[in-house]
Amino acid sequence: MKKLITAILGALFPLAISAREADINAVTVRLDSLYNAVLNAPGARVCNVKFTGSDGSKAPGGFRWQRGLGKGWTQGLRISLPGVSPSRAAEFDTFFREIGRDNFVIRYNDHCSATLVEPLNTIYIYDYDSADSCLSFLKASTTGEICVPKVWPRVDSLDATLHDPLAFASRRELALLGLSRLWAGVKRNFAFMERVKVDWDSLYVANMAPVAQAADNGDDERTGELLQLMAAKLVDGHTYVYGYDRRKCHTPLSTVILDGRVYVDKVLSPVLEEQGIRRGMELVSVNGIPVVEYGQRRVMPYISSSTPQWSEHATFNGYNLLAAKKGETMRMTFRNGKKCLEAEYTPDGNFRPNSPRAIEFSMLKNHVGLLRINNFMDADFREQFDNIYPAILKTRALIIDLRGNEGGNSGNGDHILRHLSSDTIKTGAWTSPAYIPAFASWSMEQPVHHGAGNTLAPVTDRPVYDRPAVLLVDGGTFSAAEDFTAAFRGMGRGKIVGTPTAGSTGNGVRIVLIPGVAYANICSKHDVAPDGTEFVGIGIKPDIEIRETYGSFFGSEGSPVVKAALRLLR
Q: Staple 508 to which of 147, 217, 358, 521, CB 3.0 to 4.6 Å?
């Protein structure tokens, strides 16, 4: 049986690796092939299962997956395959990880993953129990909203309404509860309450009627939008509402803003190419509105941001600008020299932006290495770095590029920092609200918890990179990437070149606002640089401020940012 599973996965992995280039039908074929192979494996046990969710999302152990309110019965066939070794289960992890780079894989932990094929409203989910060496695989669908409880490998049927005191609450009641949870969650947890320039109580009251009206109309998405607009008033990049925009689709065209003008960066659709759209063209208007005005009116208000530079980056760089609801046609005007072109595109939900690998490395002239860190998120981040570190050690100097890096796991950044100095590295201190009810009863001021920064010991199992280094940043350098930048400056490792960073980091408290509809992340931690300097709400200013131009971004004249770094490393 083990040989059979190996053969199954061996045949499927080449297909899985190219999944990000395939359409949703091809992905479905791959998943069905794996599912059917497990179904037909010797010893496989099958069982029909059905689950339903509830407005309050209550179930024994909670839900592994729920979309919307989980209404309607989610039904499918569960396969239980005993005698699967951990190494074989890891092969399932690899398969789902490759499929999931662009296709909605949720990795809860090792040996548990799910892929939702939205056009078919079908979910594939597996789980591996190392205690009894049993792998469970479920394919389920529903005419309503998908839900899968955490106990799905062991329970054949579950009606969450039987366990949920909110099961029969109305949409209006749940929406107002979500509004209240957001208001209370911010009051209790938000690390920057003293900076808030709006009256939070008044904003809460002002949103009661609009939220109730959206719920009465059955418009969960609008309910979530109203909550996010409220959260955005706190002006913090790590405090936001999410989960509500399920109909949001991306147009396969990314943009970049340079000197106040918006240009086409990537064209990933034959439909747009056939209309004459090419990289480097200026985007003039969207749906008849001048492009900058469109971004400021239609996109920017829904972005939680601590600084203008992050607002600009998040709005105009990437795919956010041209995102739309499924089926909503985007009409765009482009300029190519003196000629204007009209184009349109209707997102269907099948395109998803490709996520680059976390780390890229190249060698520039005069043995200067360029370490491009796209994110700190990849599960195998440290493995990626360790694999290229021998090449880094062969350089005489190093440029580390964090431009557009929107963060991830700060521990991954710490892993790199430990290779850049033979001295102990200090990270910044932090504070967090600390609420003591007894203090309130005595009319005493509430305390604030003060946390010391971490100390990072240098690596000892390999050489430390002690040659010159320069760090590149911009307004898209965010969260964990800013933690890295602050520590890099604090250790005096080298100059920083580019434009001010996004000015937002911190740990978020996650709150269920409206189950299956809207969730909140509330920043609970106020970080400062190792020397005590404030950068949240400001950004980290580079030593040399310089930015890309149209000619450097699209032409052959070379990046002025990289050139400035090379001059420092002569």
A: 521
179 shares a domain with 155: no
Asked if the model's pLDDT at residue 5 lies above 50, the reply is: no
Predicted confidence band of residue 147 (pLDDT cuts 50, 70, 90): confident
Give residue 92's pLDDT.
Answer: 83
Residues 42 and 135 in one domain: yes
Within this chain, do residues 61 and 207 fall inside the same structural domain, yes or no? no
CA 294, CA 277: separation in Å to the nearest integer? Answer: 20
Residue for token pair 């049993």:
134
Tens of pLDDT, residue by residue over 284-330, are: 999 999 999 999 999 999 999 999 999 999 999 999 999 999 889 99
What 3-state DSSP class applies to 180? Answer: helix
Which residue range(s) make up the domain with 217? 171-233
Nearest to 191 by CA among 567, 447, 523: 523
Whole-number Å distance between alpha carbons of 31 and 34? 5
**In a 10 Å sphere around its CB, with 0-12 CB exposed, 13-18 middle and 19+ buried, how is residue 447 labelled?**
exposed
**Model pTM above 0.85:** no
Task: With H, G, I as helix, E, B as strand and everything else as coil, classify residue 71.
Answer: coil
Structure tokens at 158: 């579950």
| Token output for 110 | 């090792």
Q: Does residue 504 surpass a pLDDT of 70?
A: yes
Residues 334 and 206 in one domain: no
Does one domain contain both 394 and 496?
yes
Closest CA to 223 of 244, 237, 243: 244
Q: Of 290, 298, 291, nearest to 256 (Cα)?
A: 291
Residues facing 401 on adjacent strands? 372, 472
Residue 16's pLDDT band, with cuts at 50, 70 and 90, is: very low
Model confidence at 245, pLDDT cuts 50, 70, 90, reads confident
Provide DSSP, 197-230: -S-HHHHHHHHHHHHHHHHHTT-HHHHHHHHHHH
Number of structural domains found in the chain: 4
Greater pLDDT, 317 or 150: 317
pLDDT value at 475 more than 80: yes
282 located within any domain:
yes
**Residue length, the chain?**
570
Q: Is the model's pLDDT at 101 over the cut of 80? A: no
**Cα 341 from chain centroid (whole Å):** 33
Q: Give a yes or no: residue 352 inside a domain.
A: no
388 lies in the same domain as 466: yes
In a domain, 238, yes or no: no
Task: Quote the CA–CA distance of 73 and 65 in Å, as a whole number.
Answer: 14
Burial of 18 (0-12, 13-18, 19+ CB in 10 A): exposed
